[in-house]
């Protein structure tokens, strides 16, 4: 089980929160481009809390030597895995000649993987789609996986939709191309020696268990973000661990502790962290008011602990 890399969402604060809820789930960074690491502020992009392990760094790029240098950085900074993005369909990513458009160049992807494998001792994985544009040709994704596997990639995370490179926004690309879970299951049948994980539209224990009977892993994106309390069941449901004794209130308090440490160490305002937990009480009475308090910019001058006190929902009086 893993939480998908999501741009502008799965920053280090989000990952710390998710780790409070699940000890076992694999967490991913937002996609970081090779250019941002090689020519930008490395600590800003790669800094994380030790509690976030196991943690994978997702890279965006298409130059083998640049990716090799970034894989070494991932190793030096203590990441547990480095992942190559071959699934993002945004036009900005296409202009950089990486993301989903790389599926058209499996030999180049293989060269990138080989360079990273040679440069670092970390597992090198690839996240990709099942096809490009409206062509639904299984041989396309089968040959892509086969070519990249020959270069040393043993783990493939497969978003079970095509990527339409023209005419759809990234959001529409997560919703409009039809989900075809059967394609991912077929990849597992054809490549039993590889680890195949599935991504795309999955929500709820039953849907995950259904896929885990066919493939090796499940990656969840927006459902995990918007309904984070689901993660508190993952260790028991999918890893066979003891049920978590953590309550939502305790999770909130632990995140407030983290907010205070981040403010003291880096000057980070609690408001930048609180946004990631706004779904914590989804479905509970009073959740809307709690969410409104934590997202009220007029309260930004208050310490996080005072905001928590304001947000806490008082129980309804019990009828006599």
TrEMBL record:
It catalyses: 5,6-dihydrouridine(20a) in tRNA + NADP(+) = uridine(20a) in tRNA + NADPH + H(+); 5,6-dihydrouridine(20) in tRNA + NAD(+) = uridine(20) in tRNA + NADH + H(+); 5,6-dihydrouridine(20) in tRNA + NADP(+) = uridine(20) in tRNA + NADPH + H(+); 5,6-dihydrouridine(20a) in tRNA + NAD(+) = uridine(20a) in tRNA + NADH + H(+). The active site is at residue 88. It is an enzyme of class 1 (oxidoreductase). Its EC number is 1.3.1.91. It comes from Oryzisolibacter propanilivorax. Residues 3-298 form the DUS-like FMN-binding domain. Its cofactor is FMN. Keywords: Flavoprotein, FMN, NADP, Nucleotide-binding, Oxidoreductase, RNA-binding, tRNA processing, tRNA-binding. Belongs to the dus family. The record marks 85, 171, 174, 288, 291 as: Interacts with tRNA. This is tRNA-dihydrouridine(20/20a) synthase. GO terms for molecular function: flavin adenine dinucleotide binding; FMN binding; tRNA binding; tRNA-dihydrouridine20 synthase activity; tRNA-dihydrouridine20a synthase activity. Catalyzes the synthesis of 5,6-dihydrouridine (D), a modified base found in the D-loop of most tRNAs, via the reduction of the C5-C6 double bond in target uridines. Specifically modifies U20 and U20a in tRNAs.
């Amino acid at each position: 089980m893993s939480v998908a890399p999501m741009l502008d969402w799965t920053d280090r604060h989000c990952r710390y929160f998710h780790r409070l809820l699940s000890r076992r789930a694999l967490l991913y960074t937002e996609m970081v481009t090779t250019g941002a690491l090689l020519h930008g502020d490395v600590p800003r992009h790669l800094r994380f809390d030790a509690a976030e392990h196991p943690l994978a760094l997702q890279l965006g790029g298409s130059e083998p030597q640049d990716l090799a240098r970034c894989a070494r950085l991932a190793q030096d900074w203590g990441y547990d895995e480095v992942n190559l993005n071959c699934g993002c369909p945004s036009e900005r990513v296409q202009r950089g000649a990486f993301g989903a458009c790389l599926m058209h160049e499996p030999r180049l992807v293989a060269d990138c993987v080989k360079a990273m494998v040679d440069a670092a001792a970390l597992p090198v994985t690839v996240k990709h789609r099942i096809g490009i544009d409206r062509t639904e040709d299984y041989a396309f994704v089968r040959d892509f996986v086969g070519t990249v596997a020959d270069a040393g990639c043993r783990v493939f995370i497969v978003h079970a939709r095509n990527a339409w490179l023209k005419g759809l926004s990234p959001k529409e690309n997560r919703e409009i191309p039809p989900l075809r879970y059967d394609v991912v299951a077929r990849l597992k049948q054809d490549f039993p020696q590889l680890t195949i994980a599935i991504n795309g539209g999955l929500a709820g224990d039953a849907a995950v268990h259904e896929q885990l009977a066919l493939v090796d892993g499940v990656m969840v994106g927006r459902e995990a973000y918007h309904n984070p309390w689901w993660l508190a069941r993952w260790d028991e449901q999918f890893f066979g661990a003891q049920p978590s004794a953590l309550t939502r209130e305790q999770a909130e308090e632990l995140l407030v502790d983290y907010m205070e440490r981040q403010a003291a160490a880096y000057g980070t305002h609690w408001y930048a962290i609180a946004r990631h937990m706004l779904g914590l009480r989804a479905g509970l009475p009073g959740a809307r008011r709690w969410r409104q308090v934590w997202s009220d910019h007029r309260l930004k001058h208050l310490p996080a602990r005072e905001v928590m006190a304001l947000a806490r929902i008082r129980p309804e009086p019990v009828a006599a």
